[in-house]
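The passage that follows is intended for readers who have already worked through the single-chain material. We present the inputs for a multi-component assembly, then the predicted structure in tokenized form, and finally a short commentary. You are encouraged to pause after the input and sketch how you expect the pieces to fit together before reading on.
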Amino acid sequence: MTQSIGVSMKRKEDPRFIRGRGRYLDDIKLPGMLYLALVHSPYPHARIKSIDKSKAMAVPGVKAVITGEDLDAAKLEWLPTFHGYDKQMVLAFGKTLYQYQEVAGVIATSREVAHDAVELVEVEYEPLDPVVDPYQAKEDTIILRDDREPKTNHIYHWEVGDKTATATALDTSAVRIKERIISPRCHPAPLEPCGIVADMNKATGRLTLYMTSRAPHVHRTAFSLVTGIPEDKIHVISPDVGGGFGNKVPVYPGYVVATVASVIIGVPVKWVETRTENLTTTGFARDYHMDVEIGATKEGKVTALRVSTVADHGAFDAAADPRKYPAGMFGIVTGSYDFPAAFAEVDAYFTNKPPGGIAYRCSFRVTEASFAIERGMDLLARKLEMDPVELRRQNFIKKEQFPYSSPLGFTYDSGDYAATMRKALDIIGYEALRKEQAEKRKRGELMGIGISTFTETVGAGPGKQFDILGIKMFDSAEIRIHPTGSGIVRAGTRHQGQGHETTWAQIVGEELGLDPQELLVEEGDTDTAPYGLGTYASRSTPVAGGALALAARRIREKAKKIAAHLLEVAEDDVEWKDYKFGVKGIPDKSVTMKEVAFAAYTNPPPDTEPGLETSYYYDPPNLTFPYGTYIAVVDVDADTGAVKVRRFLAVDDCGTVINPMIVEGQIHGGLAEGFAIAFMQEIKYDEDGNNLNTNFTEYLIPTALETPAWETDRTVTPSPHHPIGAKGVGESPNVGSPQAFVNAVMDALAPLGVTHIDMPLTREKVWRAIRNAS
Amino acid sequence: MKINVTVNGTRYDRDVEPRMLLAYFLREELGLTGTHVGCDSSSCGCCVVALDGDRAVKSCTMFAVQANGHEITTVEGLEEGGKLHPLQQAFWDQHGLQCGYCTPGMLMTAYVMLKHKPKPSEAEIREAISGNLCRCTGYQNIVKAVQQAANELTAEPAAAAVGS
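Having made your guess, compare it with the prediction:
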């Protein structure tokens, strides 16, 4: 056996996908299965005066129509939100609180009949004035939530840092910038929509839930707590998942209604949302309105950072944040820079929009924070008339400062920000680009170079700080090695394209000297996988990856005893070297893990349990802090506002790289989503609360034509506390790139005096900015 | 309505509702679930299949009855005699997929394009797949995969032997 970690091994999951043999949620068809379709509110805010089911019930094939009143009678109308600060309606009850809110469910013998009958459910509404803007919500003139005390739209105030010291430092700074920077509401829109097949087997009393779930164990616990069905009677299976990006973490009304219907009727019930349902009702992301202030000396040394945020949470506070962190890891807002003083606060409000606030391809609220600081640093550089690269270099946390205690409470694990930036500048040819830009500016051409030197924090996380529903955010692994030396590896995570079936096998293969091709990886079935918190927030490698390595080392400890028995030496004389057990001082005497595995079942030492399997629950001591330098080069057409991304370079440092091919693929994908957020994707509402982006003709996803070519490279600074030094990478490109694009466009428009445009930078917005400036 | 459709070389005679979409005919009547549905507006291309071998069609935007008398090739029909189609092999080799949901549509679009344009440029590949959305890959490795398959399909037999 040779090295497994660091090898670009082709993916083990691909053979089924390239043959069209993946098994996604909608591919599941059970005998006697019924279909659920949902009735949606046309109004963002309205009283429900009556619901008449009779016409729908008269349609042949319709088995049931379920309303909020029905659920309330069964005490299933309200769901707890993940962090437990709020509760959420399953179906609109008394009032509707956002356009497209789920009002009733129709269960029928086919998808088509169910959708037809939805049109026949007659709901009488009394429209109410909506609250669409969080600043309007703040005024409390219209109270949205009758069910809560006190009567206010304000959900919470959260703050971190030294408020007084920061205010003083800002007031005495020679140079200050202040800007309202908005991270607009957008939606992850994975290509596979959300769905469920709920299958209550009345003979066994077991409820099987096939769900597009990225946290099957947590969902099992949540369903048990809400329904009272014992947890052993609930079996959650997450089949192949067609992308998630944060969208498939929450529990949605369709899941609950399908489950209730299956429990009552006793047959399987399927619900698969339409794309419109996906974009209008399921977890949105961002919607942070951040007032960013930075102080500095005249020489460009930062003195203080203050960020005051108004967060639009929609109608329920269903943000997917850990319990004690209502604003997630927003405290990472000091980024890669050594701020002597900092203060951040977030005030969240209810509005007549769908709930969410999910972590869209990022650790909780890290993307918003990273965007704020990286845009802020560029604005400061502009004010100081300094090169943004030079400003960053002067203020980086230095290599020798790690582990670094940030003013907002994080302990950064490792990094060498200056080295990574230097590498990126060399690759892109920064000096030459600046010269080219100077010449173009003389000719009136708009060329821009944008930089982002971001640091994110991922891998929630240490159980002492992070939990969901009280469950600490550990993760788990279980390994069984078979007599012939192949094996099965299970984890509490659930991949949706990240390649766990390959990388998990590589981690275990590396630790045990076994061939990753002979290690089957299985996730997503709560009956077989060990309890885990799931895959989101870049936590799989930092948390489950650690569990896998440590479980494998437990196997190796036992294997060492068996090896000593086979080698007929004392255990102390056995050493693990070159992926096998050798004897110290005797180079040609060794046994392989395969030989040990066979002996574990056929010839174990007399005092040792037979078999070779173990599990490990890993609670990491700290988060990890991946970082990178991204550089965008753009040309802006002054006549049309069109932005052409000429080059984009990402130099990432995610610590130890398990599979370079997969890491590069993750970076490409995240950059494409960062590009989409910077230029195209936004969920907009008109002043009456109507969603203006209800399908893919209105909510634009970049195609291969718009998407730039990506250049990537890396530096490697392992995490000192992670068992294999890995930090996680899937979200870095999405966290780090939007500001590189925006900074580049603002740099291009600098000669016109344009300093900031809120995302997405559509052609129209850029054109208007150019027109207004000139 | 009674229709006969040849799918991946097998003829099927079926009686279908006139409003049944081709995508659901393939998925639910024939059990060929490799063809996926990802939107309701003919935007995402997860459902692309080949019609009569030389047209890429979005099967969510075509009724099953419109396929009457035609031949359909789906992703399940690409592999021949246990050997992956060069496009399938190339998507695997080049890491041209992640979650796999868009992959069948991408493969079928590329399959039809290569019949019309055996040696496409990068720009032509990007243009050809611009009706297929992918959220995972950032498209770069998909483009590389199509290039690899094009090279293999147009290689002289001797050159192919050296390369294998």
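Commentary: Residues 86-156 of chain B form a domain with the DNA polymerase; domain 1 fold (CATH 1.10.150.120). Chain B touches chain A through 56 residues (CB under 8 Å). How closely did your sketch match?
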